[in-house]
Write a structure and sequence with these properties.
By secondary structure, this protein is mainly β. The protein is built from no helices and eleven strands. Helices cover 0% and strands 56% of the residues.
Length: 115
């Protein structure tokens, strides 16, 4: 069983930047899709960014250009670089992975974008 642990959340001003990290603990299979989702109060969880084993990625339309996702398989870690952050992006950010149809989720890290 793999446990995903996020870090790097916190408070940031509008227009500022944060970098989130997600470390996978346990018996890790590197060849799996991973990514980031977020959920704001009263809203559905939405996909922010996905990264494949080969490094290919997919970004949500609202974060394209401003955000980037990367992975370091030697460290069993993925990252989410968030730039030019907007107030409405205040949310809980969750790390995610899927392998052979099984999904795993981290506990989440809170990101608050203040005016």
């Amino acid at each position: 069983q793999v446990q995903l642990v996020e870090s790097g959340g916190g408070s940031v001003q509008v227009g500022g930047s944060l970098r989130l990290s997600c470390v996978a603990f346990g018996s890790v299979e590197r060849l799996r899709d991973m990514g980031w989702f977020r959920q704001a109060p009263g809203k559905e969880r939405e996909m922010v960014a996905l990264v494949s084993p080969g490094g290919g990625y997919n970004l949500g339309n609202s974060v394209r250009v401003r955000f980037s996702i990367s992975r370091d398989d030697a460290k069993n870690t993925i990252y989410l670089q968030m730039n030019s952050m907007r107030h409405e992006e205040t949310a809980m950010y969750y790390c995610w992975e899927v392998l052979s149809g099984r999904e795993n989720w981290g506990q989440g890290t809170q990101v608050t974008v203040s005016s």
